[in-house]
Amino acid sequence: MSAVPAAEPAIRVRGVRKVFTTGGREVTALDGIDLDVAAGEFVCLLGPSGCGKSTLLNAIAGFSPPTSGTIVANGREVTAPGPDRAMVFQEYALFPWMTVERNVAFGLEMKGLARAEIDERVRGLLAKLNLLGFEDRFPKDLSGGMRQRVAIARVLAIDPPMLLMDEPFGALDALTRRNLQDELLRIWAEFRKTIVFVTHGIEESLYLADRVVVMTYRPGTVKRLVPVELARPRDPASPEFNALKRDVSALVMEEQRRHEAEEAGVRAPPP
Amino acid sequence: MRRRAAALARSLLVPLVVLAAWEGISRAGWVTPIILPAPSQVALRWLAYARPLAPHDPAEQSWLAWVFSGELPHDAAASLLRVAGGFAIGTGLALPLGLVMGARPRVYELMNPVVQLVRPIPPIAFIPLAILWFGLGNPPAFFLISLGAFFPVLVNTIAGVRNVDSIYLRAARNLGAGEWTLFWRVIVPAAMPYILAGVRIGIGVAFIVVIVAEMIAVNSGLGYRILEAREYFWSDKVIAGMISIGLAGLGIDLLMNWLNAWLLRWHRGLES
């Protein structure tokens, strides 16, 4: 089910570098990132914490522009956040003062659609994400998995060509996570969105992605692009899956060890 | 059931002992009734204060109007109307200013020094000026009450707007919200728990100030009545008036509680 690469990539990242200044010290979070994501492709950004994968996602989203380099998404250079690049946050970021229904309707109201059309589309999405019967609940009354479903429905409502997901299932228990992963794959197959998905879960990335971008620890660079050519639905217990998992684990653990060595105050070798 | 009855008995124990001791001390004649009237005497006085002055005459007024024709309902209504009016003025000014000061750092820098200078002055200290500016009667009372409500609402509104979690702003912008929508549909509701906490403090201060204002500037209301009673050495009526003030304050607090619970029904802090 791997996506057919379009002539023009949905996302084109070129020479992106991002430097943060914290406490008078400059930290290079990203350096020399080049990455193309094809339209309809499911890409995971994988690496230990501190590798800049969320920073890269935030740069693509337009929340935090790179220090240098360019990002072109959907044919336009990214300068600000926009509804063509819908973000799903690990913390859900649902508006707690709105009911499930109002949360999902929010983006549609921003588009200025007619009430009747909004209601119809909201109902359709709630049905699709198994949220019927919860329309009038407030987020505080939902479980983590339900909240993330609402957050996904909320961004699907505005029908963006791409979804940017920042460790969306990181706070969920294992069973709920697998459930939502399957649901996400179903949605991805149905709506044909481009998805960039940040995770530190090796198995999660191999279960979901067409391509896994393994990143290095500080500065964040692209260490290896790993295509995952296993047929979906994938079986995490299969030998092929585990062989791939072993390879990718080795790559990630290298970076994790550099991370730990650096934290221990030992000068890490350059990448 | 039995546990609840036991809890009720425990919560009533201390008040009953205090009342009994007080009654005993008064009856024994250890203190003169002018210094400390017996609670039974206070209760009777409170009933007289609350009761209609004339017997009911169906030709003259409806039954409901008659029930509330006593001195106490009039005084309570006068005080509560002053609180409501002054509070509405104070909050009406503090809310927009607080929202703008919270959202616009430039405005905050301009206004904050004045706010910080005037805020610590107790509203009571404005009494001389209030009388010079507005004379006697309701205007100085409204001025003082609105001043009392103004600062708690202002300070909390500013804090509420400034403390809005940036993830909501990011999510809203990402969904295509413009600045105006962001303000009214995200920042204001997100700040609402802070704002309502300020409103609650503000109405509490307004209630304190109304009693003081009535003691100096007007001749109606609960505050005026207890001062008047003192002039006649009606200690029982002073205490009856104080109890009425307490009940009115309790009523306002319950109303605010209910309003809070309803407006913040989405809020995590209210999970039961």
Task: Note the main attributes of this structure.
heterodimer, A: alpha/beta, Rossmann fold, four-stranded antiparallel sheet, 7 helices, 10 strands, disordered N terminus, B: 272 residues, mainly alpha, MetI-like fold, 11 helices, 0% strand
Strand content of chain B: under 5%
Kindly state the percentage of residues in helix of chain A. Answer: 25-40%
Task: Write the CATH fold name of the domain at 1-80 and 191-271 in chain A.
Answer: Rossmann fold
Would you count the extended β strands of chain B for me?
0
| Count of DSSP H/I helices of chain A | 7
Strand order of the largest sheet of chain A: 6-7-8-3-9-10
Q: How many beta-strand elements of chain A?
A: 10
Low-pLDDT runs of 5+ residues of chain A are 1-6
Q: What is the element string of chain A, with H for helices and E for strands? A: EEEHEEEHHHEHEHEEH
Give the CA-based shape of chain B: globular
In quaternary terms, these chains amount to heterodimer
Q: Any idea of the CATH topology of chain B?
A: MetI-like fold
The end-to-end distance of chain B, rounded to whole angstroms, is 21 Å
CATH architecture of chain B: Orthogonal Bundle
The CATH class name of the domain at 1-80 and 191-271 in chain A reads Alpha Beta
State the distance separating the first and last CA atoms of chain A: 34 Å
What is the string of helix and strand elements of chain B? HHHHHHHHHHH
